[in-house]
Amino acid sequence: MPAQMNWTEIDVQAEAILKTMSLKQKVGQTCQITVEGILRFNPDGTLPLPLQVNGEELSEAVQTYKVGSILNAPGRALPRTEWLKLIQAIHAPYVKKEIDIPILYGVDAIHGANYVLGATLFPQEIGLAATFNVDLARQFGEVTAVETRSSGVPWNFSPVLDLGRQPLWSRFFETLGEDPKLASVLGASIVKGYQGDLNQSKLGPDRVLACMKHFVGYSASASGRDRTPAIVSPRDLTELYLVPFKSAVEAGALTVMINSASLNGMPGHINSHLITDVLKNKWGFKGFAVTDWEDILFLDRVHQVAASHKDAIAMAINAGIDLSMVPLNPQYKEYCRLLEELVLEGGVPMARLDDAVKRILRVKLAAGLFDVPSKKNKTVPITLQSESAVLAAKQAVSESLTLLKNEHSVLPLKPNSSILVLGQAAADRRFWNGAWTHTWQGRDSSYFSTDISLLKEWQQRAQTQQGKVDYLVGSSWSESTGIPNEGAGLTPQNQKSIESADVCVVFVSEWPGTEKPGDEENPFVTQNQMDLVHELKAAGKRVVVVLMLGRPKLLGSILDDADAIVHAYLPGEHFTQPFLDKIYGSADFSGRLPFTYPRYPGRWEHYDHANSETIAKDNSGNGYNPLFDFGFGLSYATWSVDASSISADTLRSADTVWLEVRLRHNADRPCQVTVPVFGSRRNLPIAQRGKYLIDFQKKWVPQGNSALFRFPLSVSQFEFSDYNGNWTQARGPIRLDVFNSTLNVYLEP
Ligand code: GLC
User: Fold this and answer.
1) Which residues contact 499 (CB under 8 A, 6 or more apart)?
2) Is the CB of 213 under 6 A from ligand 1?
3) d(CA 236, CA 52)
4) What's the pLDDT at 333?
5) What is d(CA 271, CA 262) in angstroms, rounded to the nearest whole number?
6) 292: Cβ below 6 Å to ligand 1?
7) φ, ψ at 265 (rounded to 5°)
8) What value does the CA radius of gyration of the chain take, rounded to a whole number of Å?
9) pLDDT (tens digit, 9 = 90+) per residue, 653-668?
10) 353 and 407, same structural domain?
11) How far apart are CA 702 and CA 6, in angstroms?
């Protein structure tokens, strides 16, 4: 059931406001501009601090054109004090009763409040997904909400609920991985963290509006390049891409951002079937749909489905768009003028405009924006990076780190060993955070605080254990172009450091980037990084590779050259201590891959593949052969199944059958473990996926003891989509795989 807002009361208020509004006011409410349009800049284009709001531009936007929303960071992260002044200046026309409806401000805070200087920076979503930890996802949302709202901003363009199934895609790191169940459960948890439980009450003073994005199919780009066509069958749309969004609607998400690309030939912004019929009418989504950047203009300029900007506006608004992120000046003025003309000419029915405005008013009322801030309820004063916030971020890093390979017991490192650390990422935190960090592409290192250094902390720790840590950059990136510098980056002078090291730890990364600037032609890890690992191996060294990658790049020679491989994803700022705990063995790994890791450039395959993909060239059954499977992750501890059972052989509609598995490990300390349950259906009228994730749990298991994992099963978990994308009840034999146990149940719905 969707989270229970008191929509009746809010609808009454929204209706009452709507009745008082002029056409110009209604049109303005559907218009969003970017903050740069109301700020003064230095002659050289840089942003002066303290910020200077351009009063004339602001007044023209909100008073003359009645614009209802503003977005974005002004090209860079700001101190919280600057944010508060900016938001206060933007809210002032409403407080002074110069306008009747408050401005809604939105920003991207996708791995913490990444545009607030000094905020807690979590792992990017792909790393959060590797934790398989629902409660951590909620904490991620709560901390991000508190720190974002403490800057005065009430709306966060997050979570990304697109599925990471195209390894080339520049925004793979922004997703919760390839699986709809994992993305649904964690995505819903993030939404609840952002918004709190919206039962009856309005958004809390330290909560933000969520924005599930990008609805829908954006990540399924056939070419791997951002904003290029996605071709998704009705079956995959139903069983994969729509699932996390429906889950977020049920979790109460109050806004949605639409897919900029085309899906099956139709640009996302004119897909009235998905936006209006499915999202709003069928699923009961009560919030509003916002476009992505300039996406109405792009219906004409890029997709070329509209003959003019005016045509494009009519197509998008009539398809169900409620708020247009126009967002540039003077384009927003043309948008307002053209939409007003369209309504007067009947090109956009007044009823559609009223519906859009009412949805926007509902959300502004639910966010408490109309409550003029009295002296008493000013923004909640908080400490950024509070102890609890940093603890949550460290826990997210700790539970995301995934051990993919560990031969010759090279890990855990011996405390007194001599370590040589290599790779630019070890000393450059842009590679820890990725894009959407202080700046859009995350390539500006000037905003990072100076109090975090992996190498310094590592050296200090090693010295207390009679160990040693040295550092060589080795392979690196060209600062001006982001292109990797040729070669391994080693010189004859480095030979001594290499020879004296017991173990070399090489950080392998990719240049930060997202969206179009993050488009990537090379599916492999860069050659210079492969060369570096190869040269160290050739020198007879033990090599540990740490992957700081936002998308699964092919490893090439690294796979064989590395004795151990740890995936760190994009871990954010609190990487050091959890990482050192893991590689020295004072804590065990519990991270699991939230995606299938490809082995070959010509084969993007997924764990939920069809049976036909298992047929190999030699007709054997091992044709499905990724480098690492979805859900894969090693640990120091060895796990075993004490017992597994299912409470009945047959599952009928009204039943709940319990699947139980009891696990134990051999470590002399408590260990965490994720237990996924996979199901597989067959003998059905559509070729089924080999297996798919039904449920998962993660728990601590005490030492020398075991832990029971219990999973309720009901027939609805075994529904599948027919050819036309309609959910259909399965029947017949179901295989259940849990850890290394296989159980069976017969469905008789
Ligand atoms: C960008 C992104 C979207 C983001 C928006 C506002 O183009 O596609 O995810 O929320 O613009 O920054």
Assistant:
1) 539
2) yes
3) 49
4) 98
5) 9
6) yes
7) 95, -15
8) 26
9) 989 999 999 999 999 9
10) no
11) 44
**Ligand 1 proximity of 125 Cβ (cutoff 6 Å):** no
DSSP letter assigned to residue 628:
B
Is the backbone of residue 408 left (phi > 0), alpha (psi -120 to 50) or beta? Answer: left
Name the residue among 123, 126, 221 with its Cα closest to residue 168.
221
Yes or no: say if 434 and 551 are a contact pair by the CB < 8 Å rule: no
Q: Do 482 and 336 share a structural domain? A: no
Q: How far apart are CA 513 and CA 517, in angstroms?
A: 6
Interval 566-578 mean pLDDT: 98
- Rounded Cα distance between 47 and 280, Å, is 40
For residue 258, the CA-to-ligand 1 centroid distance in Å is 10
How many residues would you count in the chain? 749
pLDDT tens per residue, range 605-653: 999 999 999 999 999 999 999 999 999 999 999 999 999 999 999 999 9
- Site to probe by mutation for ligand 1, drawn from 156, 292, 436 as the one with most ligand atoms within 8 Å of Cβ, is 292
Mean pLDDT of 154-181: 98
Pocket residue to mutate for ligand 1, from 107, 155, 157, 323, most atoms within 8 A of Cβ = 157
**What residues does 681 pair with on adjacent strands?**
734
Judge whether 624 lies within some domain.
no
Pull the structure tokens for residue 125: 């979503």
Per the CB < 8 A criterion, the answer to whether 121 and 111 are in contact is yes
Q: What is the CATH number of the domain that holds 70?
A: 3.20.20.300
Q: Are residues 126 and 84 in the same domain?
A: yes
Tokens of 536: 């160290």
What's the CA-to-centroid distance between 226 and ligand 1, angstroms? Answer: 12
Domain of 344, in residue numbers: 7-366
* Contact in structure between 254 and 158 (CB atoms under 8 Å): no
Taking the C-alpha atoms of residue 600 and residue 131, their distance in angstroms, rounded to an integer, is 26
Decide if 456 is inside a domain: yes
Tell me the three state secondary structure of residue 130: helix
Report if residue 467 sits inside a domain: yes
Q: Quick check: 33 and 68 in contact, CB under 8 A?
A: no
Instruction: Let me know whether 454 and 546 are in one domain.
Output: yes
Tell me the whole-structure pTM to 2 decimals: 0.98
- How far away, in angstroms, is 176 Cα from ligand 1 center? 17
Q: What is the pLDDT of residue 82?
A: 97
CA distances from 198 to 44, 120, 172, 289 (A): 46, 25, 30, 19
The amino acid sitting at 519 is D
pLDDT at 380: 65
Using alpha carbons, select from 120, 110, 104 the residue that is nearest to residue 35: 104
Residue 742 has pLDDT above 70, yes or no: yes
Same domain? 644 vs 744: yes
Tell me, what amino acid is at 9? E
Tens of pLDDT, residue by residue over 344-389, are 999 999 999 999 999 999 999 999 999 877 655 556 678 999 999 9
Judge whether 743 and 659 are in contact, CB under 8 Å. yes
Token pair, residue 697, equals 């749990």
CA dist., res. 165 & res. 159, Å (int): 17
- Ligand 1 center to 303 CA (angstroms): 18
Q: How far is the CA of 515 from the centre of ligand 1 (A)?
A: 9
Secondary structure of residue 287 in the 3-state scheme = coil
Using the atom order of ligand 1, give the atom closest to the CA of residue 160.
9
Rounded CA gap, 320 and 300, in Å? Answer: 18
Strand pairing partners for 543? 504
Ligand 1 centroid distance, CA of 293 (Å): 6
* Cβ 294 under 6 angstroms from ligand 1: no
Same domain? 645 vs 610: no
Q: How far is ligand 1, taken at its centre, from the CA of residue 213, in Å?
A: 9
**731 burial type by CB count under 10 A (0-12 exposed, 13-18 middle, 19+ buried):** middle
Phi, psi of 215 (to 5 degrees): -70, 115
Is 382 within a domain? no
